């Protein structure tokens, strides 16, 4: 049972939840609020298969007629993989597409400014505690309506953007950070993505069909003293908001973060920065444990005049990052655009080379040890 005290960087979040009123913005508020709460347990008992005893008839080697032999075999004990991540009791696939959980939208607010290229929304759904998840997992959403063949829409996956306690601290909600997909096809028609538009248009009170939770790749490390390097582009910030709320806005009996969290976030314009005020609040609260670096690609450049992508920003801290990567308790998490993975590999190749290390082999080892975790799309 975790008992938690939460400091929320956004007073309007609380105010609006109570009345389910339209929620202005997570962008502009800097008011701070704290309250105490009792949280639901975030540990669940895993289902462990009971040891199985069985007997069988086996033919004796070299004999024509089978000799009745009774063999009693105990199923070998399952060798538990020692995970560095907080994996114990993690639930997956509680709700499947045929039997989804129906939650309600409690609030839906636009995060990006009017002049940002594209819209990104933050939304909170009620779960009544029925969709227990961990930081870093995803849920599926099935949009209302049918596809062009008259069949229900297929689910789309979304990274959970809240901590396990949820934005209201009662383990009864799940939040997402969703980019509205709109593009022009080859025929010059404007096409709207099915599920992202369904989600971004949801009004408080509307129902939403949820599946999952799924995913273990992005679970947080168990070690509260770890160095956690988070690399996100755009909505790829979602899992990291969950991590950071747990680390800096909540108090848990069994987890007190005392390591280093370093977030790199890449967005196109400053009006596209996501949850900026929350992160700045965390930095204020825990200056020794949290580093925050933005890469604003269409407004910033490096000293060579190159576009400031996330990997360009990281390159400015190359030595430090490389030193951190040599530590056994440094964990890197990457989430967002697929393209970022190659860009980040490219800078790591040259860093590793200086020490005579082959980056791709080194990365493979880090992955094995769960220290290099990637969920890009
Ligand atoms: C593990 C995981 C986590 C994810 N987390 C998030 C998240 O947190 N937030 C988020 O916003 N998204 C997330 N996504 C992406 C999300 O699942 C959806 O793919 C996204 O919202 C688009 O779905 P849609 O139904 O709106 O679009 P769809 O109706 O499914 O349309 C998408 C299709 O449109 C086409 N298309 C898209 N862009 C173009 C283009 N420019 N030109 C031509 N064709 C194009 C492609 O064929 C594409 O497959 C995640 C994906 C995965 C796999
Ligand atoms: N778990 C997951 O798999 C997961 C979770 C969440 C989101 N996603 C996916 O992540 C993507 C995020 O998109 P978004 O629209 O939210 O982001 P966005 O707001 O467009 O921001 C993406 C940023 O990354 C930059 N960028 C483009 N190409 C890059 C590259 N090769 N290397 C590094 N940076 C690059 C963009 O720069 P320019 O635009 O200026 O070029 C922009 O600054 C979506 O495709 C979403 O589906 C996946």
TrEMBL record:
Domain of life from the UniProt record: Eukaryota
User: Where is this chain primarily localised?
Assistant: plastid
Where do the FAD-binding FR-type domain residues begin and end?
98-220
E.C. number(s) listed in UniProt: 1.18.1.2
Stretches assigned to coiled coil: none
Listed under catalytic activity are: 2 reduced [2Fe-2S]-[ferredoxin] + NADP(+) + H(+) = 2 oxidized [2Fe-2S]-[ferredoxin] + NADPH
The keyword Cytoplasm belongs to this UniProt entry's keyword annotation: no
Give GO cellular component annotations, separated by semicolons. Answer: chloroplast thylakoid membrane protein complex
What keywords were assigned to this record? Chloroplast, Electron transport, FAD, Flavoprotein, NADP, Oxidoreductase, Photosynthesis, Plastid, Transit peptide, Transport
Binding residue positions for NADP(+): 159, 179, 235, 267-268, 297-298, 307, 336-337, 375
Which pathway does the record list?
Energy metabolism; photosynthesis
Against Pfam families, the record matches this protein to:
NAD_binding_1 (PF00175)
Cofactor or coenzyme needed: FAD
MF-aspect GO terms: ferredoxin-NADP+ reductase activity
Stretches that traverse the bilayer: none
Task: Report the locations given in the UniProt record.
Answer: Plastid, Chloroplast
Q: A Gene Ontology biological process annotation?
A: photosynthesis
Q: What family is this protein classified in?
A: Belongs to the ferredoxin--NADP reductase type 1 family.
Q: What is the name of the protein in this document? A: Ferredoxin--NADP reductase, chloroplastic
Source organism per UniProt: Colocasia esculenta
């Amino acid at each position: 049972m975790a008992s938690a005290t939460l400091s929320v960087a956004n007073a309007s979040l609380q105010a609006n939840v109570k009345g389910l009123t339209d929620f202005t913005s997570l962008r502009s508020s800097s008011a701070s609020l704290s309250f105490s709460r009792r949280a639901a347990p975030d540990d669940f008992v895993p289902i462990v298969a009971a040891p199985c005893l069985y007997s069988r008839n086996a033919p004796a080697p070299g004999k024509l007629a089978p000799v009745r032999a009774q063999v009693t075999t105990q199923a070998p004990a399952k060798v538990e993989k020692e995970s560095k991540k907080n994996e114990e009791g993690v639930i997956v696939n509680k709700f499947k597409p045929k039997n989804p959980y129906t939650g309600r939208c409690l609030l839906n607010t636009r995060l990006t400014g009017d002049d940002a290229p594209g819209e990104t929304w933050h939304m909170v759904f009620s779960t009544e505690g029925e969709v227990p998840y961990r930081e870093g997992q995803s849920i599926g959403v099935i949009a209302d309506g049918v596809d062009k063949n008259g069949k229900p829409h297929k689910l789309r996956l979304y990274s959970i953007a809240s901590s396990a306690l949820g934005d209201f601290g009662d383990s009864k909600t799940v939040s997402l950070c969703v980019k509205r997909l709109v593009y022009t096809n080859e025929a010059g028609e404007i096409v709207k993505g099915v599920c992202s538009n369904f989600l971004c248009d949801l009004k408080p009170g509307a129902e939403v069909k949820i599946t999952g939770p799924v995913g273990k790749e992005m679970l947080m490390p168990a070690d509260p003293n770890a160095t956690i390097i988070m690399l996100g582009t755009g909505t790829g910030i979602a899992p990291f908001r969950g991590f950071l709320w747990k680390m800096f806005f909540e108090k848990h009996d069994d987890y007190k973060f005392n390591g280093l969290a370093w977030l790199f976030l890449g967005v196109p314009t400053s009006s596209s920065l996501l949850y900026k005020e929350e992160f700045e609040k965390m930095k204020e609260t825990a200056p020794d444990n949290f580093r925050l670096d933005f890469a604003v690609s269409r407004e910033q450049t490096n000293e060579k005049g190159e576009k400031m992508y996330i990997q360009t920003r990281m390159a400015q801290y190359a030595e430090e990052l490389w030193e951190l990567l040599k530590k056994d308790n440094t964990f890197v998490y990457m989430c967002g655009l697929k393209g970022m993975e190659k860009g980040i590999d490219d800078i790591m190749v040259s860093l590793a080379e200086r020490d005579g290390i082959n980056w791709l082999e080194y990365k493979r080892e880090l992955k094995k040890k769960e220290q290099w975790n990637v969920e890009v799309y």
